[in-house]
Amino acid sequence: MKKLMVGMALTATLATAVTPGFGSIGGNQEKAYAAATVTYKVTASKLNVRSGAGTTYGIIGSVVKGQTLSVMSKSGSWYKINYNGRTGYVSSDYVQASGTATPPAESTTYTVTASTLNVRSGAGTNYASIGSVTKGQKLSVVSKSGSWYKINYNGRTGYVSSDYVQASATTSPKLVVDSFKTLGNAQQVILVTADNYDTKSAKIQTFEKVDGKWKQVLTANGVLGQKGFALSKKEGDMESPTGKYTIGTAFGRYANPGTKLPYRKITANDVWVDDSKSSLYNTWQQKPANGRWRSAENMDIPAYDYGFVINYNESRTPGKGSAIFFHVGTNYTAGCTATSKEQVVSILKWLNPEKNPVIIQSPVSELDKY
After folding, report:
1. Fewer CB within 10 Å, N side or C side of the chain?
2. Strands 243-252 and 358-363
3. What is the pTM of this model?
């Protein structure tokens, strides 16, 4: 069973969902809207509740089998829930929805159109007014019952007439990968960008296609070769290659941290051959050399505590560059791409060879090539 977001006691149905921390009526609207009769129950013995919609996000708690969740919306294969007064996310694979309605995508805003609109304690004009909202204000809508919206109002449950509220779809910001034309069947992308060719500082972003739409998973700082990106990579130039590459073997000096990629544990004898004149150029080998190469890079070093092979120069063209990895590091590299150990492990756990992951490395100005 997949590991997913963990949480403690959640509350009843969608009808009781409350989104905390929104201005006078929830200024940063919670775009939930569904029939108040739908219930969402956990089917896994224990289900992780995470801080974001993905397994790379931190665990903030857990829920248990049979527990009823307060679902606010759905994003891809994740439910956004109210979890002990916080916002959490759980995988929909382990939640059973009972009823005909489903929570909406997070793509609707609810705006007050009346100059002043009463907020009532129940769904009807016969209920007492507990406050008011004004024209242009955004509402945190939990559900709809007849002609009334159930909202989060200053931490309380309130109701407003839908006659004086405009619901409008919002367009999600376009992601950079949405414009890429060369991804083929790749459903996971690691994007490494730099401001120009000469900088060693990089931005690392990961994206995953969920239900046919790209979602951003992670953003981190990273580093490139000491001299930045290469216009044309050469052995020993201290530059990182640009381009789109598939992802090879994961590796590390310790046990597999949980990656689905093929994993190889490094030993003291492991080297990567960088001798352009050797027939084993740009391959992983073991010492002793016995005349098979004149130079090779030692793999048993802290930078390679964890990482994966970037499938660069697979034809092993002499002098074109070797040993191009994604690994641990925060200063600069000899031609690889690096980031913190925490981020490397997080990306390794996220990568799934069944989703045909690729890594794209490019100056920002040349992203239109992809």
Report:
1. N
2. antiparallel
3. 0.60
